[in-house]
């Protein structure tokens, strides 16, 4: 059974790139945009066995019980890439 595993709460007005991999070879890569007003838009780039999604104010993964490693970077409004706390 797949469950939502929260990763982070994005700041409004910023864009993130999310990459996740699991021990069984599953992976997900997505763009996340946090709009002013609280809307979070997730755009999948590729996905096999994992899904990046938003639930409420959090971004996370939907996956069966798997050991997952995930990273994300936050892209500033000026277009500079800044590492996020993972």
Description:
The termini are far apart. The strands form two sheets. A five-stranded antiparallel sheet has the order 4-3-2-7-8, with no helix packed on it. The protein has a three-stranded antiparallel sheet with strand order 1-6-5, with no helix packed on it. The chain contains no helices and eight strands. It has 86 residues and is an all-beta fold. The protein is 0% helix and 62% strand. The model has no long low-confidence stretch (mean pLDDT 85).
Q: Would you kindly provide a brief summary of this structure?
A:
With 86 residues, this protein is an all-beta fold. The chain is built from no helices and eight strands.
The number of strands is 8
Specify the helix fraction band.
Answer: under 10%
As laid out across the biggest beta sheet, the strand order is 4-3-2-7-8
Tally of helical runs: 0
Main attributes of the structure:
86 residues; mainly beta; 5-stranded antiparallel sheet; 62% strand; globular
Annotate the secondary structure layout:
Elements lengths: L2 E6 L6 E8 L4 E8 L5 E9 L2 E5 L2 E6 L4 E8 L5 E3 L3
Antiparallel strand pairs: 1-6, 2-3, 2-7, 3-4, 5-6, 7-8
């Amino acid at each position: 059974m797949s469950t939502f595993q929260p990763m982070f709460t994005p700041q409004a007005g910023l864009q993130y790139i999310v990459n996740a991999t699991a021990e069984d070879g599953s992976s997900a890569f997505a763009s996340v945009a946090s709009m002013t007003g609280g809307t979070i838009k997730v755009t999948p780039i590729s996905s096999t066995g994992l899904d990046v999604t938003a639930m409420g104010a959090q971004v996370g993964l939907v996956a069966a019980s798997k050991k997952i490693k995930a990273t994300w970077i936050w892209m500033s409004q000026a277009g500079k890439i800044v590492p996020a706390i993972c």
